[in-house]
Each structure stands twice: as C-alpha cells, then as structure tokens.
C-alpha cells in the first residue's frame, strides 16, 4: 500500500493522474493501516485461520470431485465471520422461531474416534407393559459422555471439542415418539414426543448410558432414538461423510398388560414435559409447555407418586425387554441390511 501511495504521489506530481484519484488512494491507505491495527484485536479473525476453500463454490472448472447435480457452495473470503449480520443471533438460547449461530464448528475427530451407538434396551420389536417404568440403555463408543453445559444460557455457544484421547466431549439424548402405526409412512412431528432426556452423566464410565422412563408409556407403537451431541448440545460433527451413523433408533410397542386392569391413558409424559428441564427446552406452539421451565419440574414430581409401585419392578422391565421376542428376526434383518448397504453406499456422497 505504501508502494501504491508512493507511486500515486509520483504520478500525481508528474501530472499523470488527477488529485481526486490521489485522495482516493490516500483514504484507502489510511483505512488499510487502521485495519491492520484492528486485526490484532481478539475480536478479529486471525488471517492465518481463514479457510481459502470457503471462498470457492466447488464448481470452478477443473475442481476435484465435481459431479452433475452438485450445488454451488455459498462463498465468503473471511470464514463467514459476519454471516449472521442483520439476523437474530442464537446467543446461547433455544430460540423456537429460528436464529443464526456464528460459533465455529470446532474440533473434528479422527476416523478412529468416530462415535457409534447402539440401543440395548428396549430391544428392537420389544413389547413393554403400559404405564410401567423402563430403562432406555445406550452403549456408545468414542463419546466422552456426561458433559453437558447449561442449555438455557449456553446452547451452541462453544465449538465441539475433543478430549486427550481425541474423543468428542459431549452427551447423549434419548427421544421417544409415538409413531401411530409401527410401519408408518408419515414422518413423526419432531415437536411432539412422548419422552425426552439429555443424559448428563457418564453412565458406567465405559459408554453405557441410561435414562429411566418414569411411569412408562401408554399403549402404542414407538420409536426411540439417540441424539448424540457435543457439550453445547450441538449435533456431533464427524471427519468423513461416508461412515456408519453415530446414532441409533429402534421401534418397540407398548401394550396394556393382560388382566392388569391398567388404563392405557395414564401416561405421565403425556404433556411432553418429562425431563425437559435438563435441556432447558421450551416448546413453541404447545399450550402444555407455555410455562417453560416451571412445567418441566412436573415430570419429576409425578414420578414420586403413583408410579413407584410399578417403577420398582425394575427386573420385570428388563425381563421383558430382553426376552425372546426382542431378539427375533428383526435383528437378523438389520445385520443383513447393513452388509448390503455397505457396498452400495460407497458411491454416495
Ligand atoms: Cu443436550
């Protein structure tokens, strides 16, 4: 810039350019000097950290990996550092009307540290008794579990991070939805769920995590899924696209126990509030939850009353979940499906 300024001065003094252009150059060089000064501030992006790939659409002629049907990437020469300008920023809150989060994605694990999970209870196809407490158990691998920041104030406020072994520091959520029919073709409404819990402990310290569904569920057909997250509740980011899923889902049914006389409509979770306090969740457009956190305490309050007689039958729960039905042909079906898909998917992505 000083060279430009010097040359500009020479050209102007030689009468080759006019004064207005020279003043333009002077202004620019002043701006640049102050910009370099500001660049030292912590609030500015270190220029060594700019990802040059973000300035390209990926569709420039000659680019590796181009295939028909690919979209052009959005571009920004400065890491999208001001991407959220003019929008409501997330700023640690679970904003039900949407927002823009400008925090970096963070540290990405090596392929040898990718997370995997399998739901071990209930098992696929299990039939559980209505209104009876049961455990959702998840065996995880390469999740440094039980790390869980304040979801009311620090939702998405920090990047994904790794521990000394290279595993993602985070936690697992489990979420249960009523599917209506077991083989429904209608995607369940994600704003409606029968049970939700962010598991904020490290389980047995070897990746086995558990959540108790206090009071159980009413009769119905359900899907339970894991949603594994980094510490600030964001979905985990992995190093490669082609991989096995980090999450698991299984389907199970709940039926009124024969001769139990139990009503099937006494679901303690029916107002969708159980355990929501642990995620600071506020559900939009649902009158049941309009009181936000106050409502969430009800989930635990309910547990103490009326359900304990059944909840104490922990062994009964396990017996059902691990019975012959749970280990039926569906398990084989999954194994076969994976083997076949393994090759098919190599073309994808
Ligand atoms: Cu969470």
TrEMBL record:
Keywords, in A-Z order: Signal
Source organism superkingdom: Eukaryota
Biased composition (Low complexity): 284-349
InterPro entries in the cross-refs: Appressorial_penetr-assoc
Cleavable signal peptide: 1-19
Keyword Heme: no
Chain positions covered by the region annotation Disordered: 280-349
Protein name as it appears in the record: Ribosomal protein s17
Taxonomic source organism: Sporothrix stenoceras
């Amino acid at each position: 810039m000083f060279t430009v300024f010097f040359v500009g001065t020479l050209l102007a003094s030689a009468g080759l350019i006019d004064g207005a252009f020279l003043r333009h150059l002077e202004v620019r060089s002043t701006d640049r000097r102050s910009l370099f000064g500001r660049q030292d501030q912590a609030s500015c992006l270190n220029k060594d950290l700019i990802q040059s790939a973000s300035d390209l659409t990926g569709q420039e002629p000659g680019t590796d990996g181009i295939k028909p049907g690919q979209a052009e990437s959005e571009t920004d020469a400065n890491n999208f550092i001001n991407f959220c300008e003019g929008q409501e920023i997330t700023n640690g809150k679970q904003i039900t009307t949407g927002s823009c989060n400008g925090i970096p994605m963070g540290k990405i694990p090596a392929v040898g540290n990718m997370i995997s999970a399998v739901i071990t209870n209930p098992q696929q196809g299990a039939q559980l008794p209505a209104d009876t407490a049961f455990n959702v158990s998840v065996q995880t691998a390469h999740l440094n579990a039980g790390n869980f920041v304040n979801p009311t104030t620090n939702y998405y406020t920090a990047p994904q991070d790794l521990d000394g072994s290279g595993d993602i520091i985070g936690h697992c959520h489990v979420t249960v939805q009523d599917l209506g029919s077991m083989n429904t073709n209608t995607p369940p409404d994600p704003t409606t769920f029968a049970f939700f819990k962010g598991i904020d402990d490290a389980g047995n310290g070897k990746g086995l995590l558990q959540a108790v569904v206090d009071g159980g569920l009413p009769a119905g057909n359900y899907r339970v899924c894991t949603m594994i997250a980094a510490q600030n509740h964001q979905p985990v980011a992995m190093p490669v696209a082609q991989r096995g899923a980090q999450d698991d889902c299984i389907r199970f049914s709940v039926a009124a126990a024969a001769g139990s006389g139990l009503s099937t409509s006494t679901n303690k979770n029916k107002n969708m509030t159980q355990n929501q306090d642990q995620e600071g969740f506020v559900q939009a457009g649902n009158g049941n939850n309009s009181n936000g956190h106050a409502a969430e305490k009800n989930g635990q309050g309910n547990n103490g009353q009326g359900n304990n007689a059944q909840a104490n039958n922990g062994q009964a729960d396990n017996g059902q979940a691990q019975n012959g039905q749970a280990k039926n042909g569906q398990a084989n079906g999954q194994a076969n499906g994976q083997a076949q898909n393994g090759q098919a998917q190599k073309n994808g992505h």
